[in-house]
Amino acid sequence: MGEPNSSQDRAGILIHALPYIQRYRGKTIVVKYGGNAMISPELKAAVIQDVVLMACVGIRTVLVHGGGPEIDQLLKKTGKESRFVQGLRYTDAETMELVQMVLAGKLNKDIVALVQQAGGQALGLCGIDGSFLEGVRYRSGGEDLGFVGEITRVNTDLLETVLNGGYIPVVSTVAIGTESDAGQSLNINADIAAAKIAAALKAEKLLLMTDVRGVLKDLNDPDSLLKVIYRKELDDLKKQGVVSKGMIPKIECCSLALDGGVSRTHIIDGRLPHALLIELFTDEGIGTMIV
Amino acid sequence: MGEPNSSQDRAGILIHALPYIQRYRGKTIVVKYGGNAMISPELKAAVIQDVVLMACVGIRTVLVHGGGPEIDQLLKKTGKESRFVQGLRYTDAETMELVQMVLAGKLNKDIVALVQQAGGQALGLCGIDGSFLEGVRYRSGGEDLGFVGEITRVNTDLLETVLNGGYIPVVSTVAIGTESDAGQSLNINADIAAAKIAAALKAEKLLLMTDVRGVLKDLNDPDSLLKVIYRKELDDLKKQGVVSKGMIPKIECCSLALDGGVSRTHIIDGRLPHALLIELFTDEGIGTMIV
Amino acid sequence: MGEPNSSQDRAGILIHALPYIQRYRGKTIVVKYGGNAMISPELKAAVIQDVVLMACVGIRTVLVHGGGPEIDQLLKKTGKESRFVQGLRYTDAETMELVQMVLAGKLNKDIVALVQQAGGQALGLCGIDGSFLEGVRYRSGGEDLGFVGEITRVNTDLLETVLNGGYIPVVSTVAIGTESDAGQSLNINADIAAAKIAAALKAEKLLLMTDVRGVLKDLNDPDSLLKVIYRKELDDLKKQGVVSKGMIPKIECCSLALDGGVSRTHIIDGRLPHALLIELFTDEGIGTMIV
Amino acid sequence: MGEPNSSQDRAGILIHALPYIQRYRGKTIVVKYGGNAMISPELKAAVIQDVVLMACVGIRTVLVHGGGPEIDQLLKKTGKESRFVQGLRYTDAETMELVQMVLAGKLNKDIVALVQQAGGQALGLCGIDGSFLEGVRYRSGGEDLGFVGEITRVNTDLLETVLNGGYIPVVSTVAIGTESDAGQSLNINADIAAAKIAAALKAEKLLLMTDVRGVLKDLNDPDSLLKVIYRKELDDLKKQGVVSKGMIPKIECCSLALDGGVSRTHIIDGRLPHALLIELFTDEGIGTMIV
Amino acid sequence: MGEPNSSQDRAGILIHALPYIQRYRGKTIVVKYGGNAMISPELKAAVIQDVVLMACVGIRTVLVHGGGPEIDQLLKKTGKESRFVQGLRYTDAETMELVQMVLAGKLNKDIVALVQQAGGQALGLCGIDGSFLEGVRYRSGGEDLGFVGEITRVNTDLLETVLNGGYIPVVSTVAIGTESDAGQSLNINADIAAAKIAAALKAEKLLLMTDVRGVLKDLNDPDSLLKVIYRKELDDLKKQGVVSKGMIPKIECCSLALDGGVSRTHIIDGRLPHALLIELFTDEGIGTMIV
Amino acid sequence: MGEPNSSQDRAGILIHALPYIQRYRGKTIVVKYGGNAMISPELKAAVIQDVVLMACVGIRTVLVHGGGPEIDQLLKKTGKESRFVQGLRYTDAETMELVQMVLAGKLNKDIVALVQQAGGQALGLCGIDGSFLEGVRYRSGGEDLGFVGEITRVNTDLLETVLNGGYIPVVSTVAIGTESDAGQSLNINADIAAAKIAAALKAEKLLLMTDVRGVLKDLNDPDSLLKVIYRKELDDLKKQGVVSKGMIPKIECCSLALDGGVSRTHIIDGRLPHALLIELFTDEGIGTMIV
Question: How much is the pTM?
Answer without folding.
Answer: 0.94
